[in-house]
Write a structure and sequence with these properties.
The structure holds two protein chains of two kinds. Chain A is of the alpha/beta class. Chain A contains seven helices and ten strands. Chain A has a domain of 160 residues: P-loop containing nucleotide triphosphate hydrolases (Rossmann fold). In chain A, strand 9 and strand 10 form a beta hairpin. Chain A starts with a strand and ends in an 8-residue tail after the last helix. The relative contact order of chain A is 0.18. Chain B is mainly alpha-helical. Chain B folds into two domains: 239 residues, no CATH class; 221 residues, no CATH class. Chain B starts with a helix and ends in an 8-residue tail after the last helix. The chains are: A alpha/beta, B mainly alpha. At the A-B interface, helix 2 and helix 3 of A face helix 15 and helix 19 of B.
Chain lengths: 235, 526
């Protein structure tokens, strides 16, 4: 579903991502791990078509810049950026209209209910706390029923109820065949659901492995073995 | 060594050290120096060859109107959260340290002067426009100095207003009334003199001589002081500027005496500014532009589907931000100033001069359009649809606003000035097409720099691009217009200019039609 082939992203002389390749199949969750500055957010922004890059990225076989790919892709950014003068409900309506969604309202109501935003539908973006903004951002990303979703640090600022709901939403989407990439520093938050992991250091994937390849299945142990020994794992 | 002195000295030193690591910034500074030297040479040549098309006293209402915008912003800030003269680092490190709070305030003021210095920098590039009033480089420097002082005074005023009205609605109401009422004596005096003389020049001269100007605080004193100094009336000029300095000292004295613990008063403003800066650094320009003002949500919902939804979203945001829609505070102040200007100087100036001033303002105002702000958010990139159609629909609201501005700023004043109707209509077309051209140049700059550049350098590139793109059309319009002469010449000149602007706009938009595909989502780089 998400196919990244030989992706390199340069900022002048600085190489933020170097020759990265990864595949996320339908119904799979890939967790992107790495220390600060490893290039995770840059990779995510490239996949979402927000940055230029060398290489190839496809979503369900479509070039990631094509309208077909955009229609299939959802994105929850690291920093929720809501429109200060739109209400919560209008954010959902904006997405629904822009993606030309039919019958979007029942799903919008359900999402608002799940993330405890139903009583805040008429609150403006600027009136929301960071956690609530993050919830709206998640609702907007999944409203389009995407076939692939990228989450960049989705749990930051969320309350325990929202964290539980998000985890359960991710599990449901996985079951429905949605391909997902989750970038996070909270390793234990993805322990239950992950299928593959890519551990990034210095703009490269230092280790990529599937859950069944990992002895003992301890993701945290794997992470520290890669990042605290200066890399060196298998790619 | 005093901690304050250490902070100032080290910050300046590190700024210079930074230039070694950031050559782009060094180039920017060099370009600014080159531009100032060029401006100096141009104004020296201009001063030798021209005495100006208009008397320098006409600058008084223009300067006053310009400063009025900053005055209104300062009053609003004072009533909301105050103005910030400190950084969050000062709050976290300096405020909790055992240092004298008065020395900290002085430190804040020194930094404030530095900030005001940069805020007034654009005035140095106004030499050619100011030459119309016979103002040479010395005069430009006087205006620059007066502007710095004025901005510092307005910041202190804002601080004072916050300190005395915070949590007191009755006082806030009083400040709102007083803020407007203080200008009534000055305006009434001018109106009476104008009616008795029948011409604005004599009325303005009388106003300058009259003590009634004392009642127009800060901006009235700044305008009168600067114009007196430019005219060579040293005594009068120093009197006004002295009054301005004394008022600053008085306000500071009041703040320190009445509230020895002023830290609380500056905290909210500092935190507000810090949050905005953080939002900008994170690319969340929408949040950075949001105010704390209460917004009443009455009508909800959007219209349109696909990329057309952008225009309806922008209209909803505009009308929610301001219940009068496009009639923002900026638009109202500019319109009122132009109405006054066109009424009192109707026999002296024409609509083309107003157009010239508006075009200059628009160079900077175009960046505030919602379409350009949209490029800092991921939605416009991720929503399916043609990138070119997204550009068009996301800027439609701005073009509607510009069309309305052209009627308000040029159409109505043109009628007041009894200008030729075709000239007025042509000026409106020039203004709208100029805005379109500026917009297209913004996208073109974004495309060719790939948005991977510091904001300062991007601004310089944009300004240079505007000059380069406008120059051929402007020169052709001036040469052909002047050779034809009279009304016919004006009309030909305006026609050539508008046709050129349209051609440049279409070309730039065509070249940058895929900008949303071909460049990085911009982030604010300093």
């Amino acid at each position: 579903m998400i196919q990244v082939t030989n992706l390199t992203k340069r900022y002048g002389k600085l190489i933020a991502n170097q020759d990265i390749s990864l595949t996320v199949n339908p119904g799979e969750l890939t967790v992107l791990l790495g220390p600060n500055g490893a290039g995770k957010s840059t990779l995510i922004k490239c996949i979402c078509g927000l940055l230029r890059f060398d290489g190839e990225i496809t979503i369900a076989g479509y070039d990631n810049r094509s309208s077909e790919a955009k229609r299939l892709l959802g994105y929850v950014p690291e920093m929720p950026a809501l429109y200060p003068m739109l209400t919560v409900r209008e954010h959902m309506e904006f997405i629904a209209r822009a993606y030309e969604l039919a019958e979007w309202e029942p799903l919008a109501d359900e999402l608002l209910q799940r993330f405890e935003l139903h009583d805040k539908q008429n609150k403006l973006g600027k009136e929301l706390s960071k956690g609530m903004q993050q919830k709206v951002s998640i609702c907007c990303a999944v409203l389009t029923k995407p076939r692939a979703v990228i989450f960049d640090e989705p749990l930051v600022g969320l309350d325990p109820h929202a964290i539980r709901e998000l985890k359960s939403l991710i599990a449901e989407m996985k079951q429905n065949g949605c391909a997902m990439i989750v970038s996070t520093h909270m390793i234990d938050s993805v322990e239950e659901n992950w299928d593959t992991t890519c551990i990034m250091t210095a703009g490269q994937i230092a280790r990529a492995c599937r859950r069944d390849e990992l002895e003992g299945g301890d993701l945290e142990k794997l992470y520290f073995s890669i990042t605290e020994k200066g890399g060196g794992g298998e790619v | 060594m005093s901690s304050h002195f250490y902070l100032i000295r080290t910050s300046i030193k590190n700024r210079f050290k930074e230039l070694r690591r950031k050559p782009g910034k060094l180039i920017l500074y060099l370009l600014v120096i080159v531009a100032i030297v060029a401006s100096l040479i141009i104004s020296m040549i201009g001063a030798n060859h021209s005495t100006g098309s208009y008397p320098v006293i006409y600058l008084l209402p223009i300067l006053f109107g310009f400063l009025l915008i900053f005055y209104a912003v300062s009053i609003q800030k004072g009533l909301a959260s105050g103005d910030s003269i400190f950084e969050m680092s000062d709050v976290n490190l300096l405020f909790v340290s055992p240092v004298n709070p008065r020395a900290t305030l002085l430190y804040g003021l020194i930094r404030l002067l530095g900030t005001s210095f940069w805020a007034g920098f654009f005035l140095l590039f106004q030499s050619s426009s100011l030459a119309n009033f016979g103002v040479g480089f010395g005069g430009v420097l006087i205006l620059f100095g007066a502007f710095i002082l004025n901005m510092a005074a307005l910041t202190i005023l804002s601080l004072l207003i916050y300190s005395t009205t915070n949590g007191r609605p009755a006082r806030k109401r009083l400040v709102r009334i007083l803020a407007v009422a203080v200008f009534i004596p000055m305006l009434s005096y001018f109106a009476v003199r104008f009616l008795s003389y029948g011409n604005a020049l004599s009325a303005l001269n009388d106003l300058m001589e009259s003590p009634v100007l004392v009642t127009a605080p800060i901006i009235g004193w700044t305008s009168a002081g600067a114009i007196s100094l430019i005219e060579g009336d040293l005594l009068s000029g120093l009197r006004w500027i002295g009054l301005l300095v004394l008022s600053c000292l008085g306000m500071l004295y009041y703040i320190i005496q009445s509230r020895s613990d002023y830290y609380e008063d500056v905290l909210v403003a500092t935190e507000t500014v810090f949050e905005k800066k953080r939002a900008v650094a994170e690319g969340n320009l929408q949040a950075a532009g949001a105010t704390n003002a209460k917004v009443r949500v009455n009508k909800t919902g959007l219209s349109g589907t696909g990329v057309r939804v952008f225009v309806y979203k922008h209209l909803r945001e505009t009308f929610r931000q301001n219940r009068f829609g496009f009639f923002s505070m900026y638009m109202t102040i500019v319109a009122v100033c132009i109405f006054f200007f066109s009424f009192f100087l109707r026999n002296k100036v024409d609509v083309v001069l107003v157009l010239q001033i508006l075009m200059w303002i628009q160079v900077f105002m175009i960046g505030t359009g919602r379409g350009l702000m949209e490029t800092y958010s991921h939605h416009i990139y991720m929503i399916p649809g043609s990138p070119f159609r997204k550009l068009i629909w996301s800027n439609m609201e701005l073009m509607l606003r510009t069309a309305m501005e052209s009627v308000l700023f040029l159409g109505i004043p043109g009628i007041i000035m009894k200008s030729n109707l075709v000239v007025v209509l042509s000026s409106m077309v020039v203004y709208v097409f100029f805005s379109l051209m500026l917009l297209s140049i913004n996208y073109l700059s974004m495309r060719y720099t790939e948005a991977n550049i510091s904001q300062g350098i991007l601004l310089v590139i944009y300004l240079i691009a505007v000059l380069l793109f406008l120059a051929p059309g402007l020169v052709a319009a001036l040469i052909i217009g002047f050779s034809a002469g009279g009304l016919k010449g004006t009309l030909i000149g305006l026609f050539i200019l508008s046709a050129w602007e349209l051609a440049v706009s279409v070309s730039c938009f065509a070249l940058s039609r895929n900008v949303l595909h071909n460049c990085d989502m911009p982030t604010i780089k300093r």
